[in-house]
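Let's practice the habit of predicting before peeking. Look at the sequence and jot down your guess about where helices and strands might fall. Then scroll down.
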Amino acid sequence: MPDRPKLLILVVAYNAEATISAVLTRIPPELAERCAVEVLVLDDSSGDRTFDTAHALKEKGRLPFPLHVLINPSNLGYGGNQKIGYQFAIERGFDFVALLHGDGQYAPECLPALVAPLCAGDADAVFGSRMLERGAARKGGMPFYKFLGNRILTRFQNRMLGTSLSEFHSGYRVYSVAALKRVPFALNTNDFHFDTEIIVQLVMAGARIAELPIPTYYGDEICHVNGLRYAADVAKSVFGARIQQLGVFYDRRFDLERETAPNAHYEPKLDYDSPQHRVLQSIPRGARVLDLGCAGGHLGATLRRERQAVVTGVDRHALAPGIQLDEFIRWDLNDGVPFALDRYDYVLLLDVIEHLASPESFVEQLRAALAQSPSTTLLVSTANIGFFVTRGMLLLGQFNYGKRGILDRTHTRLYTFASFRRLFEQIGFEIVTASGIPAPWPMACGTGVAGRAALALNRWLIALGRGLFSYQIFMAVRPLPSLEYLLRATKEHSALRAVS
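Done guessing? Here is the structure:
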């Protein structure tokens, strides 16, 4: 049956001399009805005769599947051993790879059921779970402290990742090789929390994960896992992935989110304290507004609807589907200011200045474009590099650019209140107001009680120390009258005085 998918059963083994033969002989022959099966025993430089025992079984040729037996020259660890096996599967062109432990903790008899969703195209990864059937784990001999730790960690991981898996800590898994190719598993730890990190990667890559119940078995095998260290490593990895999603931290291992459209990661923040919300509070009814770098046009559409404002949007990308403004100009602001701005009451420059190749030149061009309109108000915002989180990261030796947030990797400039004020004042603007914006807690904590409480606390802290606790800087600035404007006004005033 040449059209059968190719399945590699990866048996990771370490000091498994006593159990490896039984594990291999228990692999169900009926797997061949669905897949073209091969088995790889990967001995992680054991101190016993695991390799020799498996190799002898290969030489006898009594297994129903081709058997490969390899041994690492040095111990790579549980995660490192898996990496070698997955690379083997990729190089040999397998479609699926099943992870099986050489100590017999997981029943090989479950393989046909675990492989079935992948063969049907219903999943990218299938995990065997000891927790799906209530009470089964304890009946199978799982120690209570491991059961409790499993439940606590799994609950935490689901909370952080927005998943609903029954168990994160089963080592019985089947992966689509195509899914493995989509994630940088080679960058993961060589330690036991490799299993957690690859789940995080699959989740962030949008992979479909299915779970099926498996029996629990605890025998006299030796456990090589330090439970407390493992729990700490798992929590650290998952928390790091979560704060990366919030733009606080960056780790290449978890950079897997795919944007489907330009500006897709710019979420409208209109319903809570943010630069966009401050603009909605500041713009009077019927104002003429120019939104430079409008990022899809959501704010402009809201101003039209709620303030009856006349809005022109400018951005290098098209407006978001369904968004309409009075006028839209497709333009890259790195090419300068495309026209005079004296016909607008308000010009918006929200979270844009830090992305430009030369913010100083752009602000100079803004000043020139507003030379004849000193009454126009410019509303600007940017990230505050002095935010206590980035200061704390520096204290710990961390300065990680990411995909969003204060250290967005597309930022060309980083500002404090003082340097942002100086940028505009030195080019001929006066600062009308300057205020701090709290972090976007509703994006992290939701819009319920927790999110509202975090915003309230952050605002209170801003009142105590604006430079330390403001996530963003929000300013209203106006151009000072140009010399040309002042000279013309002087001439007009002088002519009036001469007549009188």
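How did you do? The mean pLDDT is 88.
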